[in-house]
Amino acid sequence: MAAEGDFLMRYRAVSNKLKKRFLRKPNVAEASEQFGQLAKELKQQDCLQYAAFCDLAMARCEQTLFNAPGEALALTDAARLFLLSEKENRALQAPGFDEHLQAALNCYSFAIKVYIEMNQPVMAASLSLELGNALKEMNRPGEAIVHYQRAAELQTQQPIESLLSMGEMATCKILTRDYDGALSVLTEMQLMCQERGLQLPGTSTPVGAFLDIVAKCEISRVLLLMLLEVSTASRRLLCLLIPLHFTSLVFNSFLQTLTDDVSLLNCVISLKAENVNAFCSLLPRSCCQSMPRPWRDTPGSRLTLIVR
């Protein structure tokens, strides 16, 4: 309690220096430095939430001084401290109202806004990714989707980074059982690889990292189509469309490197014939668990696929 009282006294003393007085201009730069020093001391004492409040006060001072980089840095430090405090509470299983998490979300949002105003989308995207990863680790994939999507939009000038962010977004959609949304994201990723990826002269086939991303997207899309509960007519239409879209693994030498993995050509043939059992026979026994009866005979059942 004595340490807490000492903190409050010092915090109020620094705050009083910022009050306007007659014929005297407050020294905002000095107050910002003192708030930063107090935040460091509180962090060493493991008072993370109090240190975060000092960083917020420092950010307000930097905003008054029109120092955008300093403001963004202070907001980022405050957001990370609030996030660490929330993780500690969860580790201790302490009851709460997620107040530290909400404070971290607000700080991240303001820091991202400052970086966007500074015309630094890369820094803003990195903070969006950091927040998305934190929410995903805290078993909140539904909330992380928005931040991964924002990161992908901010990374339009870096196709590979944007595709990786979209891949995280697709993963979160799968975790929330939004298979339709995940399928749409993976389709968009494949089109983006074909449009913006490096290609061999005279061909439309992407190379390098883009080819690897296309391969993963195609396999994931096949598995998602098998997971979705669709009608017989829609299933037949999908089986006719699959050979038109899933082509990279069939016509590229990358197929020769698939040893124990899925042979996409045989998968397409099995899907076109609506033979789920044949599709499952292409996978190792440890990687496929199917329903006891064929899928087309049991419209309400689902096929569960677990791929290494």
TrEMBL record:
Q: Which SUPFAM superfamilies has this protein been placed in? A: TPR-like
Q: What's the source species' lineage?
A: Eukaryota, Metazoa, Chordata, Craniata, Vertebrata
- Which protein, by its recorded name, is this? Coagulation factor VIII associated
Q: InterPro entries per the record? A: F8A, TPR-like_helical_dom_sf
Q: Name one GO cellular component term.
A: early endosome
The domain of life is: Eukaryota
The record's listing under Gene3D superfamilies reads: Tetratricopeptide repeat domain
| GO process annotations (BP) | vesicle cytoskeletal trafficking
Q: Which gene encodes it?
A: LOC109865825
